[in-house]
Design goal:
The protein contains 5 helices and 34 strands. By secondary structure, it is mostly beta strands. The protein is globular. It starts with a helix and ends in a 9-residue tail after the last helix.
């Protein structure tokens, strides 16, 4: 095994040199063609493509490969002044951002240097079009990567905007295994400065492994803090996140809710936000004071520095209608300064907001590239519920089944071995018709305890057809079929329903699950096996089998027992 120091040094050297080399190609990609991209003058342009290009059908051919090396490591950190065990990516929390241009090929080598944990890395929101094996979900598309082993993920940046990568092994992501993804491309409004990815997280002073027994009993653990880009104060320790605005300039901020159990209301005092994308889908811009952002969701915003000067609170309030209790509920803040030399605390006041754990209104999330929805070839209804098993563990169910997927025999591997048999506990929905519309109706009635849930589908941008709290879905429920919102995470409202649609255009095995980390581990999910007969040619079975063999050897040697859903 390489030493941590050597691996990190190589990561920095090689990734930096490749990004630098790729910049030559980047000029060719979007500065030569019908319309040159410029963030403040021509943001909708991208060479021979543009914001109007339907990226599901056409993407730039850049000829560029971006290559990264990531190492998952044990460590300790005091991100809010309180030291605790963390798991890091290349020694930091959050991990380094993965950069690419729209159309680039991306290769990421991941080495597991952890002492006693498997791992996998999921590229959240990236469709993995015909690259299902690279989706990075332990028990679904791969076995966990054993300590000392490595894996390489390869995929195309077919979408643009920003997202995040995170571990998809147990609740490991929320011990620190996550980082940003930024894919350069056109956007729907001009800006002057790109501030990059900004993470919103909840934070505990114990590891999620330590807290799992509490969560597994159906008792959501109380968070000690919330972090803004990996930092905050707590007691007399820690530090605020700070950023500087240039007066009169427009600043682009790429928000990610990376929490395990917190829905945030985000705002910057005395400033409006122009919202230009929801998840990885550019939208017609709209302006708001307060942004409601569910777990796993991303919003791209532009904030104009229209004040003369001063210091302003940047706030992330846990929406307590659905979030875990948090000791710092009113103090998850960063600072926006117009003068970088200022050291004063702001005295500004927050905007008012309603605690409801709802998404931004469907009427505001209008995709810039308009696409309509056809009638479904398949329609599936799922009732959310719960049960408590014989060991006293709380389990979420869809139509009575809590998902259990075996780390040692991932569903994708099963689909290659036997094209027809999946166990009931795998909660598999088989969709074999090509290019067909599918509707999922998820109902969240009184039997589901009246909570809201962020629903994430892998492998697809889905269309949000209907979404309502405190209501029952019926055959008369109106569906929005003309250019509805498209995204990959949407809220299932409390005591209500969510209706989504998607096209079977991506053969593979795809997970759909609640993105509250505890709930996913408690079985809230299902698996879509899409166009199964077309999956084998897309897979590298030797690589998959090698990862699984090493994992199985590790399990046998250490006596590892799977105690959650597998996802």
């Amino acid at each position: 095994m390489r030493s941590t120091m050597l691996w990190t040094a190589l990561t920095t050297l090689v990734a930096s040199s490749l990004v630098s080399a790729a910049s030559v190609h980047k000029r060719h990609c979007h500065n030569i063609g019908k319309c040159n991209f410029h963030p403040s003058k021509s943001p909708k342009c991208w060479g021979d493509h543009s914001l109007s290009t339907n990226w599901y059908e056409e993407i730039p051919d850049t000829g560029v490969t971006r290559e990264y090396w990531l190492e998952i490591q044990n460590g300790t950190a005091a991100v809010d002044g309180v030291e605790r065990i963390v798991l890091t990516v290349n020694g930091s929390v959050p991990g380094p951002t993965i950069f690419a241009d729209w159309g680039d090929n991306v290769v990421v080598h991941v080495h597991n240097a952890l002492e006693n944990n498997g791992t996998s890395i999921h590229w959240h929101g990236l469709r993995q079009n015909h690259t299902t094996q690279n989706d990075g979900v332990a028990s679904v598309t791969q076995c966990p990567v054993a300590p000392g082993d490595s894996i390489t993920y390869r995929f195309r940046a077919e979408q643009y905007g920003h997202s995040w990568y995170h571990s998809h092994f147990a609740t490991q992501a929320w011990n620190g295994v996550f980082g940003g993804i930024l894919i350069n491309g056109p956007c729907s409004a001009p800006y002057d400065e790109d501030k990059g990815v900004l993470f919103l997280n909840d934070w505990f002073h114990n590891t999620t492994d330590f807290l799992w027994s509490t969560a597994a009993a159906g008792l959501p653990p109380t968070a000690q803090n919330g972090l803004i880009n990996g930092t905050n104060v707590y007691g007399d320790g820690g530090k605020r996140f700070e950023t500087t605005f240039a007066a009169g300039k427009r600043h682009r901020i790429r928000l990610v809710n990376g929490a395990i159990d917190t829905h945030y209301k985000f705002m910057i005092d005395n400033h409006k936000m122009k919202v230009i994308a929801a998840d990885l889908v550019p939208i017609e811009p709209y302006v708001t004071d307060v942004l409601s952002i569910g777990i796993g969701q991303r919003y791209d915003i532009i904030v104009e520095a229209d004040q003369d000067s001063g210091d302003f609170w940047l706030r992330a309030y846990p929406d307590m209608a659905c979030s875990a209790e948090n000791e710092m509920v009113d103090n998850i803040r960063g600072i926006v300064r117009y003068d970088a030399s200022s050291r004063r605390d702001p005295t500004t006041a927050a905007y008012s907001y309603t605690e409801d754990c709802l998404d931004e209104p469907m009427s505001k999330l209008v995709p810039y590239v308009p696409l309509d929805v056809d009638h479904p070839a398949t329609k599936k209804d799922f009732d959310l519920g719960y049960t408590v098993n014989t060991e006293g563990m709380f389990k979420w169910t869809l139509d009575g089944t809590d998902l259990f997927s075996d780390w040692g025999v991932p569903t994708l591997q099963q689909s290659l071995i036997d094209l027809s048999v999946f166990g009931t506990s795998s909660n598999v929905v088989e969709l074999n018709e090509k290019e067909a519309w599918v509707y999922f109706v998820i109902e969240n009635g009184l039997a589901a305890l009246g909570l809201s849930h962020p629903i994430h589908l892998h492998g697809h941008d889905f269309y949000v057809l209907a979404q309502e709290a405190n209501a029952n879905y019926t055959s008369a429920t109106p569906l929005q079929l003309k250019n509805p919102p498209r995204r990959d995470v949407a809220m299932l409202p409390a005591n209500g329903y969510l209706v989504i649609g998607f096209i079977t255009d991506n053969p593979g095995v795809w997970l759909m699950h609640c993105h509250i980390g505890w709930h996913a581990s408690q079985g809230f999910g299902l698996q879509v096996v899409e166009r199964e007969a077309e999956i084998p040619p897309l897979c590298d079975t030797s690589s998959m089998d090698s990862t699984c063999a090493k994992w199985q050897s590790y399990v046998a040697a250490k006596g590892i027992l799977q105690d959650d859903s597998g996802i």
